[in-house]
């Protein structure tokens, strides 16, 4: 079994990730227009009719702005939690709405899509791992902190779309207001290059073949900074920078029979263990930083 993956777009201007096998595929988020989605898939020679569903991570516009037209044109089911749907204010025909629960796989053909909770300033945010046989691909962007859920799933993937949103020094010295800076780095916004790098160095699996660094800030980061940081420790893992302007190539993700990751299940996590995880950068405390309903 193997998976084919690409980032159709990644950034605050729109996020859309394709994961599929020879017969079926899913989109994780649909944050670019239907027309751009079609054009980019065609350039990559990927058949849009193989897409069987869209999975929504959270309600922010850069993750959902293409949903309505895609669903209307292709009659695709949308997997979205009730609270995220309510908060998104997008109309989807009721018979195309599906829900999901954390760590309860949704099976679509030979694909299994497993959601897990994350910290982000949205109503009910989740990340996803898409599996086909023994091959696992994670989509982990908009993660305010490297919490135990992220670590647990990251270390069991063959490939990951991982957020590397900002350079801490660029953010600190940039033009953003103090409030916006703390929204970004305060534990429920985004993770920095150094936080993503530490996750990669400390928790990547021996079978991780591809790392697609995603959701780079336009104002507080550069692809060169990210590439230079990660390639210094990449080893056998291919490091790719997902663009905010165009699609990446299609990458073929396969599994060695000698390196089979364990079955994914919900980690044993307490509120206290999450609170003890410190961010790389110390910032002013944010009220209600953690939501118990994530567990």
From TrEMBL:
GO terms for molecular function: hydrolase activity. Keywords: Hydrolase. Residues 13-190 form the Metallo-beta-lactamase domain. The keyword Cell wall biogenesis/degradation does not apply. SUPFAM superfamilies: Metallo-hydrolase/oxidoreductase (SSF56281). The keyword Hydrolase applies. It comes from the Bacteria. InterPro entries: Metallo-B-lactamas, RibonucZ/Hydroxyglut_hydro, WalJ/YycJ-like. This is MBL fold metallo-hydrolase. It comes from Pseudochryseolinea flava.
């Amino acid at each position: 079994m193997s998976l084919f993956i690409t980032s159709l777009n990644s950034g605050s201007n729109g996020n859309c990730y394709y994961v599929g096998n020879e017969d079926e595929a899913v989109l994780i988020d649909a944050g670019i227009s239907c027309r751009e989605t079609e054009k980019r898939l065609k350039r990559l020679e990927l058949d849009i009719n193989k897409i069987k569903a869209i999975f929504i991570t959270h309600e922010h516009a850069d993750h959902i702005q293409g949903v309505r037209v895609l669903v209307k044109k292709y009659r695709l089911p949308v997997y979205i939690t009730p609270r995220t749907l309510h908060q998104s204010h997008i109309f989807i025909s009721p018979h195309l709405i599906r829900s999901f629960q954390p760590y309860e796989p949704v099976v679509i053909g030979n694909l299994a899509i497993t959601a897990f909770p994350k910290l982000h300033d949205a109503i009910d945010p989740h990340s996803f791992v898409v599996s086909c046989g023994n091959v696992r691909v994670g989509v982990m962007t908009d993660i305010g902190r490297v919490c135990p859920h992220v670590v647990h799933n990251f270390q069991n993937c063959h490939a990951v779309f991982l957020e590397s949103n900002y350079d801490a020094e660029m953010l600190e010295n940039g033009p953003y207001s103090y409030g916006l800076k703390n929204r970004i780095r305060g534990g429920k916004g985004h993770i920095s290059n150094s936080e993503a790098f530490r996750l990669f160095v400390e928790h990547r699996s021996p079978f991780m073949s591809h790392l697609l660094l995603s959701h780079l800030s336009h104002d507080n980061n550069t692809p060169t900074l990210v590439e230079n940081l990660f390639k210094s420790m990449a080893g056998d893992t291919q490091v790719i920078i997902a663009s905010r302007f165009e699609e990446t190539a299609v990458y073929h993700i396969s599994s060695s029979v000698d390196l089979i990751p364990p079955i994914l299940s919900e980690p044993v996590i307490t509120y206290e263990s999450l609170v003890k995880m410190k961010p790389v950068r110390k910032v002013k405390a944010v009220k209600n930083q953690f939501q118990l309903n994530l567990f």
